[in-house]
Protein 1
Amino acid sequence: MESSIVLDDVSKSYEIGDYELHVLQDISLDIKKGEFIAIKGPSGAGKSTWMNMIGSLDVPSSGNIILDGNDLSNLSESELAVLRGKKIGFVFQNFNLIPSLSAFDNVSLPLIFQDIKKEKRDRITIEILERVGLKDRVNHKPSELSGGEQQRVAVARALINDPSVVFADEPSGNLDSKNSVELHELFFKLRKEFNKSFVIAT
Ligand code: ADP
Ligand code: MG
């Protein structure tokens, strides 16, 4: 199977005064296209650090990360931004939706920065909202949605650019157990339907 993300001896440490904090050491990993990866560990284990590096939001102290054949260390900040926009969808613990915008506008926002006609943007947005089960909530603002629904809006937004991988950092951290189970079921369903890689920290 084709690789989606390859980590080659990746380490990350932080310098705190004259002391070096080693958070991640010598991680090598090959995530294939369409794979579902869950990374588990207690708080402080380094899950967010790891995810931010492979999501190109942070850089390793040593080692290489290759995303869809692109070695991230060879790319400039603006090239990384383009890569993130095209290939990566992010889902966060606190949803990160824009409070003043409807579910529909939150989801379609990433498309506005692309050269796509409004008609097509609207069609894609409705389609994705349907697939996450929010067809009858499109005009609700985040404050008019439950936590589980807000997170499904965030999942729809993460998928809208047709990324090759979706990263979710403790996506059910702010949900009750029923909504967490539903969210994980949604990830499994979407993974099958879209054949994308999902990387989830729990
Ligand atoms: P997790 O997501 O698994 O809870 P994190 O990746 O957020 O863990 O953090 C891993 C460790 O790295 C923690 O001990 C944290 O205090 C430390 N850490 C995270 N970011 C920084 C930073 N910018 N500077 C120094 N230490 C950091
Ligand atoms: Mg974390």
Note: The chain has a mean pLDDT of 93.
Protein 2
Amino acid sequence: MNILEIIAKKRDKKELSKEEINYFVTNYTNGNIADYQASALIMAIYINGMSKEEITNLTLAMAYSGEVLDLSEFGIVVDKHSTGGIGDKVTLILAPIIASLGIPIAKMSGRGLGYTGGTIDKIESIPGYQTNIDIKTFKENVKKLGVSLIGQTLNLAPADKKIYALRDATATTESIPLISSSIMSKKIAAGANKIVLDVTCGSGAFMKKLDDAVKLAETMKNIGKLAEKETVCVITSMEEPLGEAVGNSLEVIEAIDALNGKMKEDVKQVVLTLGAYMIKLAGKGEDIEENKQKMLEQIQTGKALAKFKELVQNQNGDISYIDNPNLFKKAKYILPVVSDKTGYIKKLDAKMVGEISVALGAGRIKKEDKIDEAVGIILKKKIGDKVKVGDILGYIHANDYTKGKCAVSDLVDCYEISSELVQKPQCILKEM
Ligand code: URA
């Protein structure tokens, strides 16, 4: 067996055997297969797809490419993951709320992928916060505080780490076999027994249509079943960005506001729905609506915010930034974006907003690019809102004036304004 035969087989739309998939994953992880060969195979998978059996074999090979954590000492551990979006600060809000209810959270999050942001890039904008910690400390944190949030820097699913970075740089992100194996391999390796997945759908998501989002959800639920990890999927709308802020520290500030009781309605619906299922899977409440109330109480009593501070402090982050978000370094230019029309916002293209944010420096174009934590976009008007000529649609936070000016005119193009009344879009599209 060699990699050329495997690439050719997938190129010719044939099914790969378990041995061939294992060969690729093992040898790519240990450096015996070059990036250009792996890219060719990944592109062939992207174009020709994979059978259910191939997806399962790929997921398991990736999950077992490194260590697989045993978290049984913590009882039921529920994990959460999103298939990616714009302005998605959900984990930063949800993890402390759920941990404050006594449900352990041991979460390995990702960095930005394509035009979507990543929780790890966001939380690293809190000075000092360590995302790169060893497995022993990770487990000790969960034991001590009930929560730890880390990056994919441990020896957990190292094959995914390499393939994820490669996909980011080869336009192979929007693929059901590649997304489902990437997410489920990490979830299996990280050791949770139950999984809640936020499957995003719409312009700013990798799945643009509901049918495809349902297919992705079904694929991941099937892997969960085979791996004996009960999996619930919530399909959420990513037609427009989630909440108000897009960009790393801007989103952390929005998450702190949310934990202080000022949560935007769309963010609230997504956070509460995902969290209510996490509580249910943890065996701490059967009734979804009651679970949402329990979560709101954790915010009102300040317990969720206190847990977030404990999490940050325990991972070396400077909690004075949480007490006073004004400390976050601001971008040099804050440029208003003004409406030149009167009417109702009909469309706010999430993917374009994500691309503007990457162009400002909030995401990467090459694997080695450094993130600019301060830049991004604040959206003051969202779908369904009324606007008049001269109203502020949003603000661009830029450190480069030319890029900032460009972003201002690009953001105007993200909006479609209609003279007819537009309903606020539904945030939760399906629960399965
Ligand atoms: N999140 C992941 O971890 N992997 C993907 O492929 C997409 C989103």
Note: Residues 210-226 form the longest helix (17 residues).
